[in-house]
Amino acid sequence: MKTYGSAVWSGGIKDGKGAISSHSGALDQYPYGFASRFEGKPGTNPEELIGAAHAGCFTMALSLILGEAGLTAEKMETKADVTLEKQDDGFAITAVHLTLQAKIPGADDAKFQELAAKAKAGCPVSKLLKADITLTATLL
After folding, report:
1. Neighbours of 32 (CB within 10 A)
2. What's this model's pTM, rounded to 2 decimal places?
């Protein structure tokens, strides 16, 4: 499978404006720029999109792993906090912390933690990122 995302940009780093699109059309020329990335202004930014992708990927991977263990989640909610830090050579995503809350009938905490860790390590987005990826998983 292959898919894509795309971006357009006009102007300088601080005064410029960009737009991000996705192959599916879920994002269609959605605005992004310096202000939305570093100043909390409306629009999106690459780190937010990576967080959403990582949360989605991890949660799907865990659903697969749960199924292989004979379990089905009633509900799982994952948040991916992405850390962008200034370094000597520019900026880098240095960490992602996944926070999962899940209701899984029949699961005990030890098995849940084992399966969640397996999903964290095995999801394709986790494999892509070189950042320190951590996880806090709560079984409800």
Report:
1. 22
2. 0.90
